[in-house]
């Protein structure tokens, strides 16, 4: 469908004041291709948009605040973006039960402000989550280092309201923790990136905000800091998260730092830190507490930014050293940095490759993916220049989920009008 006809095909569903086209749409998406951006105000309007799209063959791309539009190349062919930003009402919040239900468009900062007076939080720290929405976090399903203590996003989403690709309204899960019978569709839709339906409402499990927040930073050469990471990962002590960052990653003697985060009661946190230092056999180069530690990790969430290249490598946590080595090989072409989740085994590379090295970078990425998949891991592109992505592919052999993904797609979005495939 052309840029000229796509908004016309959905005309009458929403007022013109809630439809962006042309330069206004491009401005909202940050330059990503989009035929229009529409802003439904409730679930009924989302259903009407999806049904109209089925009737007219219009391709829809679900989004929240638009902070993850380019991730994985899912928006590379344009379409009409359906933003749930106006669906931001808090429908149920019971502090005593540690549960909350809200519209998918509830912004992360608004959510944090709501929970803070009750000493509660939703400990999801995936890339860019602070500028996104609750529904966006559920749809992307990307966890951060805090999953070591609090679980992944899928573990903390209790229920969803979803408009499927064929216009059906599903209310799955619920507002309590033990609420699953039969197939767990909540876990299926969480992380589906809008490929099966538009998430309009989310119920989540909350946690008490810890009394103490302490982060110890260990610095040194890459091999030295990797050894510290190995000791931390093997320790039985309750470490909330550990993230390793390498700068000058393409050089053998690159500088590295390991941020080890400990959460809990004040005495408990200090005791854990003391015992960790004793087990490591070396004092940290610096220690942050309270608000200073929180600000540090808030900035870490923004680590990827909007750089033109972000590569995600994943393998078993015990293979972290090997995964870091592959990542550093990629970083040699980007002039960027490498960050690794010690407990999750996920390593990310960010950078700004030059225009004249696209072929060499693509060759390196292809080789790394082949070697990682042979070792049981994966490599995906979160952000990439168009010519690099065209040569390498956004996902590898397991990225599309195979025949099962196609069957799921046919069940929930048979035409299809949403994303072309499961990520």
What does this structure look like?
- The protein has 423 residues and is an alpha+beta fold.
- Helix content is 33%, strand content 24%.
- Helix 12 (320-331) runs antiparallel to helix 13 and helix 13 (358-374) packs parallel to helix 14.
Q: Whole-number average pLDDT?
A: 90
> What overall geometry do the principal axes of the alpha carbons give?
globular
Strand order of the largest sheet: 15-12-14-13-17-18-16-19
Return the CATH architecture of the largest domain. Answer: 2-Layer Sandwich
- Helix-strand makeup class: alpha+beta
Distance between the termini: 23 Å
Report low-confidence residues grouped into runs of 5 or more.
none
DSSP helix count?
15
The assembly state of the depicted protein chains is: single chain
Number of domains: 4
Sheet bearing the most strands, described? Answer: 8 strands, antiparallel
Strand content: 15-25%
CATH topology of the largest domain: Uridine Diphospho-n-acetylenolpyruvylglucosamine Reductase, domain 3
Got a strand count? 19
Please write the CATH class name of the largest domain: Alpha Beta
Radius of gyration from CA coordinates: 22 Å
What share of residues is helical? 25-40%
């Amino acid at each position: 469908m052309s840029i000229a006809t796509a908004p016309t095909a959905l005309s009458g569903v929403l007022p013109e004041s809630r439809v962006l086209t042309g330069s206004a749409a491009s401005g909202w998406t940050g330059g990503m291709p989009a035929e229009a951006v529409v802003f439904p105000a409730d679930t009924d309007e989302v259903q009407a948009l999806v049904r109209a799209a089925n009737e007219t063959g219009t391709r829809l791309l679900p989004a929240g605040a638009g902070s993850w539009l380019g991730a994985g190349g899912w928006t590379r062919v344009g379409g009409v973006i359906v933003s749930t930003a106006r669906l931001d009402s808090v429908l149920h919040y019971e502090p005593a039960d540690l549960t909350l239900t809200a519209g998918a468009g509830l912004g992360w900062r608004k959510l944090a402000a709501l929970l803070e007076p009750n000493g509660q939080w939703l400990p999801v720290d995936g890339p860019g989550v602070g500028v996104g929405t609750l529904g966006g976090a559920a749809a992307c399903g990307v966890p951060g280092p805090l999953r070591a203590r609090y679980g992944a996003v899928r573990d903390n989403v209790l229920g969803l309201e979803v408009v499927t690709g064929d216009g059906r309204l599903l209310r799955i899960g619920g507002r309590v923790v033990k609420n699953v019978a039969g197939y767990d569709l909540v876990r299926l839709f969480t992380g589906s990136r809008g490929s099966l339906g538009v998430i309009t409402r989310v119920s989540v499990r909350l946690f008490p905000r810890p009394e103490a927040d302490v982060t110890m930073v260990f610095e040194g050469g890459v091999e030295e800091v990797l050894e510290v990471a190995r000791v931390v990962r093997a320790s039985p002590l309750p470490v909330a998260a550990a993230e390793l960052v390498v700068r000058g990653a393409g050089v053998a003697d690159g500088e590295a730092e390991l941020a080890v985060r400990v959460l809990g009661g004040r005495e408990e946190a200090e005791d854990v830190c003391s015992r960790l230092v004793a087990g490591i056999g070396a004092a940290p180069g610096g220690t942050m507490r309270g608000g200073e530690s929180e600000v540090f990790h808030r900035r870490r969430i923004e680590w990827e930014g909007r750089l033109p290249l972000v590569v995600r490598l994943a393998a078993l946590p015990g293979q972290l050293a090997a995964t870091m080595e592959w990542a550093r090989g990629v970083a040699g072409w980007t002039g960027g940095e490498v960050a690794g989740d010690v407990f999750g085994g996920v390593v990310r590379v960010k950078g700004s490759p030059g225009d004249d090295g696209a072929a060499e970078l693509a060759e390196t990425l292809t080789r790394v993916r082949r070697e990682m998949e042979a070792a049981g891991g994966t490599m995906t592109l979160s952000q990439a220049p168009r010519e690099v992505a065209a040569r390498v592919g956004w996902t590898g052999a397991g990225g599309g989920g195979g025949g099962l993904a196609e069957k799921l797609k046919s069940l929930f979005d048979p035409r299809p009008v949403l994303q072309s495939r499961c990520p």
